[in-house]
Structure formats: C-alpha cells, structure tokens
From TrEMBL:
This is Precorrin-4 C(11)-methyltransferase. Keywords: Cobalamin biosynthesis, Methyltransferase, S-adenosyl-L-methionine, Transferase. SUPFAM superfamilies: CbiG N-terminal domain-like (SSF159672), CobE/GbiG C-terminal domain-like (SSF159664), Tetrapyrrole methylase (SSF53790). Gene3D superfamilies: 3.40.50.11220, Cobalt-precorrin-4 Transmethylase, Domain 1, CobE/GbiG C-terminal domain, Methyltransferase, Cobalt-precorrin-4 Transmethylase, Domain 2. Residues 6-212, 622-829 form the Tetrapyrrole methylase domain. NCBIfam families: cobM_cbiF. One of its GO terms (molecular function) is precorrin-4 C11-methyltransferase activity. It comes from Candidatus Bilophila faecipullorum. InterPro entries: 4pyrrol_Mease, 4pyrrol_Methylase_sf, 4pyrrole_Mease_sub1, 4pyrrole_Mease_sub2, CbiG_N, Cbl_synth_CobJ/CibH_dom, Cbl_synth_CobM/CibF, CobE/GbiG_C.
Length: 868
C-alpha cells in the first residue's frame, strides 16, 4: 500500500477563484481535508468529492491535528491540510511537517495566493515603486509570539521599504506611534488597511500613519486585516524602465508626452546634417520630406540655398512641423517672416548636427513642438530642450492637455491668463469630463473638479464639453472635444452597420473617438444615403454635403481621375473634410488634413482638423442664434459658446426666459411682441458701440425670425454699416415637430407662415395654393392667434380641395418642450379649435403614412429594393 504525502495547500486569501489549479486538484482528490475553519472560504469545501471527510482544525491542538492526518495517510488516504493564503506566511506548518515525519508520513507544499497580494490588488497599487521603494517587508508586531531580536517595526521603517503588517490590527495605535517616534516616519506617510481582502465584505481604509489607527477603531476592524505603510502607496511614484519607450524600441510613439501625428519637413545644409535628417525621418515613421541644399539622391528634394526661402514660403502651410538640422540661428531667421499665431503656426524644431540637442522653437503645445522634440531626441539619443514655463515647472498646461486629448479651444485668447494662473498657484476649477480631470489634473491640489459651471467657486475655470452659465466675473477657457470633420466617400447602398464599424475602427486606429467628430461631410449625391444619415444621427453631429464643382476646386493630396469620371470631382472624402473644416479659396491659413484618404473596400475616409478659435480684436459684433424649442438639449455648442462669450443678450422676453439662468450678469435687451424693430436697432447700436451682442431667437434665426431684419437695418442705416453679423443655425419647429411625430418630412417639405401681420394675406393665399398643388408635405407656422384664425380655416379648405379629406395631417403644440402635446389623423377630422400660435400644423402628401402611432413618409426604398 502506497502512502501519499500530506499536501499543505494554500487556499488563497478568501475568494474561491484565487486557489491555484494545483491546489484545487489536490482538494478534489482528497479523502480527508483538515482546514482552518475560521479563515478558509467554506465554498472551497464544496469542491471535495462525495465521501470526503472534512474537519475543522480550529478546536484541535497540534498533537490532535498530526494524529488525525498521519492516521489517514498511513491508511492509504489522500490528505490535504488546507491553509489560508500561502502556507509559507505565518502558516505554522513547520511543526506539523516535523510531527508527520516522526510518524513516517512525508509532506509537500502547494503554494497559494497570499493575502498581502490580494490586498495590494484591492489597493490598486504596486508595492515596489521605482525611485520610491524597491523593497517590501512582510512582518508583524509582537504578541504571544515574540519578535526575534533586531526585528522591530521601527528598524524596518528606517530602511524606507514598504511595510506590510500581518496580525497587527489590534495594536495599530501603538504601532503607528512607534513608526513615527522610533522609525522616523513623517506623520503624512501614506498608510492603508485592507480588511478581508478578496472576500465579498472586503473593506479598505486609506490615511496616514497619524490618522489610520483612529479610522480602524471607528471601522471596528479586528482580525483578518493587513496594514500597509510607505510612500509607495501614493500615486505619482517613479516610472519603471521596463516599459519605457527607450527601453527596447526607441521609436515608440505611444507616450502622450511624445505623441505627434502630422507631416514633417526637414532641412539640411551639410552632408552630416543630411545624414541626421535621414535618421530622424526614418525614426519618426511619419510622412516626411527632406530638403537639402546639397544633392542628396533618392528621397531628397535638392533645394539650393538661394531658393530655400522661396521653397519655405511656398510650403510653409503644407507641413505640420518644420525641423532644421544645424545652427539655431539659421532656423530662426528663416521662419521669422511666416510666424503668425501660436494657435495656427506649425511646430518648428532645431536639431544640432550631432543630434545632442533638439530645441522646440515655436508652437510647443498646440502645434506639438515640445512633444515632437522629445520624440526626435529619443531617436538621436540627445536631449530635448523645452523652455515653456509650464513644462519647466512640471505642470500640465491647459493648451497642452487639449492637444493631447485631440480637443479644440474655442477662445484661444484665454490660454495665456489661465496658464499664468496655473503657474502662480492660483485655484482653478475644471468643469468637464472626470476622466480628463483625473488623467491630467488629479494630482494638483490647486485644480478642483466641478460637475457644472454654476458650481464654480474660483475666479478662473476651464470648461470642457459642458453647458451652463458661469457665475459673474469668472475668467474661463472654453474647450470642446469636437475638433475634426470626417469626410466620407462610399458606394451607393452601403450597409449602415458596415459604415459605422469602419468609421469607428478608423477613428480608434488614429487615437480618436466619435466624440471628437464635429461634423460629417460628403458630396451632395450622398445627401440621402441612409448609412451616412444613420451615422450622423448616432453620433449626434451635422452632415454637410457639397456639389461636385465645389469639391473639385479644393486641392487635395490624393486626387482620383476615376472618381472624377464617375461624379465630376477628383476627391470626395478629402475635399469634403477640408470644406467642412473651413477651406475657402481666399483664406490665408487653410485647414489641413489630419489623416488623408484611407480606403476600406467601397468606403473612403479622410479627417480634417478644425482650427482653434481666437477672438478677433474687440470691435463689437452681433451673433444671431437659434434656441430651438428653448430646451437645454436644443442649444448647439456654438450657441452655448456665443451666449457665454457675449456682453449683451437681446431677444423677445419669452425667449430670453429660456436662457436667463445662463446669462447672469450680462446686459439684456428685451421687449414683447411687435417690438422687433426697436429690439434689433438697440442690438445693432450696442454692437456699433463695441459690445459683443447675442440676439436669441426661437427655432432657427433665419426662419421667420430676426436674422433678416438685422441685415435689413444694417443696409438701411449708415450707423450700422460696419457692424459684423454672424448667424448660427438652430433647430426649427418643423424639425422638432417632425421628430415628435415620426418621420413625416422624408422627401422634403414646404414651409408657409399663416401670419398676415407682415406679409399681405393675398400673398399667403397664393403661397398656400402653390404648395397645396405640389406633392410635398407642408408645415404651417403661426397658424392662428386668438383673433386671427381666418387664414387657418382658408388653408384647411385649400388643402382639402387639393389633397382630399383623407390626407394625413397633424399638429404639435409647444414642440420640444415639457408641455408638448400633439394630434394625428385625417384632414377631415382636424381639430382647428385646438390650434394656437404655439402650434405647428403639418399637412401630409401622397407618400405620407399614418400607422402605429407614427406619421412618416415612404422614402422609396421598399419599391426600389424590396419589391422587385
């Protein structure tokens, strides 16, 4: 008969799935399991085979335990001694192993997961932090089992190692005092206690050696808790070289402080400089063009010295970075005539021929010169020379953070004062995504987080993708994640899910997310492409479409004659992206492609970056905005920014009420109905006096609102002739009402106002007869007031005569507002008495369907694709 060795198995810290496979296998084969009942998870015993004897060791002394195990082993049974954690840590196994040996029974040990490592996992930290502590001491305080001479907590503390204390919670107050008094630890040394690590009732306390004992007492922790003390517990320790970008592959481009994506031009003036330029271009792995004043062979543009200025002037805007190899003075003199502004200038670097120094000259943050300098220095083995004050002081400049996060700054003039406040140590509030805050500012006590602008209590703030009004007098930097325009070219009928997977995968490859997209652009032939329309609806961004002639006028890096043969333009995705980002023939600083055309089967994608916005010199101006229904969700980011940045708000009093909570402290020009001319003239007067005025309208400002009147007054009155007027789109009532009803405007629609206050009634009647004769649905604005109802009655009669009694129709009252109500049915049953000035009436056409509580138009897809 064979005698199996007794297996001392580590059960792990508590969780059933933290026992090792080897330990679990031994447990499943055991005939007898002797376990530490007060510590081992009873769920593990359920893995024992039927008939296995299970005995709790808690009431047994050593002799009884050894006797039970040896008797079973000598009888040929498999015996497992199940310990908590790892048997090697305070497991008291030595005396058991000796006792078994005396009875002729061998032993083996199966390691387990120690509670110290489960606790470290719960803390979410590394116990060995580079440059802080590379040693861990696992120890305990003396109790009934004394500590050997020389092994005391104070002595270990003086080494600076991370200390982990077992079996010591009951004396934690004495221990902490000893660590400070005898061990020399500062009162703010981080400390943590983990109770029952990996168990369902696991709890964690964090503090310092000066307050952790009080917290443990208040929490009532007794046994089964581990104590950790040491600087390694704090965030911000040293960085391991193991995964450093220079550890084994020097050209890695995943560090945020070295990330740069763009086209680079390199300039060399000697053979040695040319060799260095080749090395840098190869290491960067980016689109690079090398210019050399000496012939350089393949891959080098020979540019004689006397023509270098001309070449630089011609190509200055074609590159995201210019890198000069040689003396810094040459670079400074060459670039001086072309520098305009830090928000739009490309990055400029100077690298010595030896590669020992790489100097960031211009556009360190938004242009990425500082990051590129660090990356080039890694390639050359040199040192990056970065002089920006925030970098020198180890602070996360706000414009640098925006650049790293691929975001767009909407008021670049605020960069300098906000960064200056950061350098001065002044309190600043960050109001925006918590993840961005934690990633960049979580370790800075001077920057606090707020969930909404109204809660800001500091004199300066950063607003990032948030809505709401700041308290009076708060200087702020406005940042949005929406910084790119995605250009799309695709075949007709591409599956919506396929297009979404391709676009989102491409964005991910570029380090971007759908949240970074401000608009989608394509050719006008795709204006009804379901896949594109579904994509923009999913991403909540606008779609912009351009005709072939407009697209073909845009210079692009990868034109296609094949595309031009098919649709009349050499480019769709690239040209559309550039147009969406602001390309215009007469603009000096043109937008650049962030990512040129990439093909994915029948889909091509290109990305253009929207420029950062810097306010024009203060001379006053008027922005006309649409508030949609007035609901917060109907305000566009542009409208939000306009309201935030203006000096004066003007509008009909009822519309101003929608946004009054957002404009505290601003001057307001408001009046009631029929005060439009007076209101618009007052707004123009304020703008002419140098104020930034925001005129608010409901819906869209260019549809039956104030935009047209403002232009009329500017044309008629000399005093206003130089006032700049800018119109920002809003969501008009027809769109809001249509969304509430379903999709009744699928094939286009006509819009007619029934108000005859400004337009003669006969003209309104003529419009009604004309649109009634068409096949288009019609949206009737201003249908009826308390006294003015005759034109509604006439309009319904005109439509009954032209389209019949059974044509679907509907109304939506207070569209988009909490009190919204609606009706759908036949024209014959239309409840005209329920209509007022807050109602929009919609009369359908021959394609309109009323079914399932929704009103929609058949688009034609079924007839074309499904009923063949």
């Amino acid at each position: 008969m064979s005698i199996h060795p007794v297996a001392f198995v580590g059960a792990g810290p508590g969780a059933e799935d933290l026992i090792t496979l080897r330990g679990l296998h031994a447990l499943e084969e055991a005939d007898l399991v002797l376990y530490a009942g007060s510590l081992v998870n009873p769920g593990l015993l359920d893995r024992c085979k039927p008939g296995c004897r299970r005995r709790d060791s808690a009431p047994m002394n050593l002799e009884e335990q050894v006797g039970l195990m040896s008797e079973a082993a000598l009888a040929g049974e498999r015996v497992v001694r199940l310990h908590t954690g790892d048997p090697a840590m305070y497991g008291a196994i030595n005396e058991q192993i000796r006792g078994l040996a005396e009875k002729g029974v061998a032993s083996c040990v199966v390691p387990g997961v120690s509670s110290v490592f489960a606790a470290a996992a719960a803390l979410g930290c590394e116990l060995t932090a580079p440059d802080v502590s590379q040693s861990v001491v696992l120890t305990r305080t003396p109790g009934r089992t004394p500590m050997p001479e020389g092994e005391n907590a104070a002595a270990f503390a003086r080494t600076g190692a991370l200390l982990a204390f077992f079996l010591s919670t009951g004396k934690i107050d004495v221990l902490m005092q000893d660590l400070m008094r005898e061990g020399g630890l500062a009162p703010d040394t981080p400390a943590a206690v983990v109770y029952r690590a990996s168990w369902p009732d696991e709890r964690i306390l964090r503090g310092t050696v000066s307050d952790i004992a009080r917290k443990v007492e208040e929490a009532g922790f007794g046994r089964q808790a581990l104590i950790f003390v040491g600087r390694a517990l704090a965030a911000g320790g040293g960085v391991s070289r193991l995964y450093g970008a220079d550890f084994s592959h020097g050209y890695r481009n995943r560090l945020p402080t070295e990330a740069f994506d763009g086209r680079c031009a390199l300039y060399a003036f000697t053979d040695k400089g040319l060799s260095r330029a080749r090395e840098i271009a190869a290491g960067l792995g980016l689109p690079c063009t090398i210019h050399s004043t000496r012939p350089g062979g393949d891959g080098v543009e020979h540019t004689p010295g006397e023509r270098l200025d001309e070449a630089l002037a011609r190509k200055w805007g074609d590159f995201d970075a210019h890198i000069f190899i040689g003396a810094a003075g040459i670079a400074v003199r060459k670039i001086a005539p072309f520098l305009r502004d830090k928000t739009s200038d490309p990055a400029v670097l100077n690298c010595s021929e030896s590669g020992a120094h790489v100097i960031s000259l211009t556009s360190g943050h938004l242009g990425g010169a500082n990051r590129l300098a660090r990356r080039v220095a890694r390639i050359t083995g040199g040192q990056a020379v970065v002089s920006t004050a925030t970098d020198v002081n180890g602070l996360p400049a706000f414009d640098e953070v925006a650049a790293q996060e691929h975001a767009r700054i909407l008021n670049a003039e605020a960069i300098r004062p906000l960064n200056a406040a950061l350098l001065a140590g002044e309190p600043i509030t960050f109001c925006g995504p918590r993840a961005v805050f934690e990633r960049h500012f979580g370790a800075l006590s001077q920057i606090v987080h707020a969930d909404r602008p109204e809660a800001v209590a500091t004199a300066r703030a950063v607003l990032w993708d948030v809505e709401g009004a700041l308290p009076d007098g708060v200087e702020h930097l406005d940042i949005t994640s929406k910084a790119y325009v995605l250009g799309i070219g695709c075949r007709r009928g591409v599956e919506p899910l396929e297009l979404r997977f391709i676009t989102e995968g491409h964005l991910s490859d570029l380090g971007l997310r759908p949240e970074n997209i401000a608009a989608v652009a394509s050719c006008d032939l795709k204006a009804d492409e379901p896949a594109i329309l579904e994509l923009v609806e999913k991403w909540h961004v606008p779609a912009r479409f351009y005709d072939a002639a407009t697209l073909d006028a845009v210079p692009v890096p990868t034109p296609s004659d094949k595309v031009r043969e098919k649709i009349g333009t050499r480019s769709v995705s690239e040209a559309a992206a550039l147009l969406g980002a602001g390309y215009a023939p007469d603009v000096t600083a043109q937008p650049h492609l962030y990512a040129p055309k990439a093909a994915f089967g029948d889909v091509t994608l290109a990305l253009a970056r929207l420029p950062h916005v810097k306010a024009a010199p203060k001379r006053g101006g008027l922005v006309v905005v649409g508030l949609g229904s007035g609901a917060p969700g109907h305000l566009t980011p542009e409208t939000e920014a306009a309201l935030r940045g203006c000096d004066v708000v003007a509008g009909y009093v009822h519309y101003v009420d929608f946004i009054r909570h957002r404009i505290h402290g601003k001057a307001v020009i408001e009046n009631g109905m029929r005060g439009e001319v007076e209101r618009c003239r007052a707004a123009l007067e304020a703008a002419a006096a140098g104020k930034d005025v925001c005129m608010v309208c409901s819906g869209d400002p260019g549809i039956l609102a104030m935009a047209g009147l403002l232009y009329e007054l500017r044309d008629r009155e000399e005093a206003f002739s130089n006032v700049p007027i800018r119109v920002l789109p809003g969501i008009t009532a027809a769109n809001i009402a249509a969304a509430s009803l379903g999709a009744p405007l699928q094939n286009g629609f006509s819009l007619v106002s029934l108000s005859d206050l400004l337009v003669p009634a006969d003209e309104v009647r003529a419009n009604l007869r004309a649109v009634a004769a068409s096949a288009l649905p019609v949206a009737l604005y201003n249908p009826a007031g308390r006294k003015r109802r005759h034109l509604l009655s006439e309009a319904l009669g005109i439509f009954r005569e032209a389209r019949g009694e059974n044509v679907p129709c509907a109304y939506v009252r207070d569209a988009g507002r909490p009190e919204e109500s609606k009706w759908m049915g036949r024209l014959a049953d239309f409840p005209a008495d329920e209509v007022d000035m807050s109602t929009l009436v919609l009369v359908g056409g021959p394609r309109t369907v009323l079914r399932g509580g929704a009103m929609y138009e058949a688009r034609g897809y079924v007839e074309k694709y499904l009923e063949k």
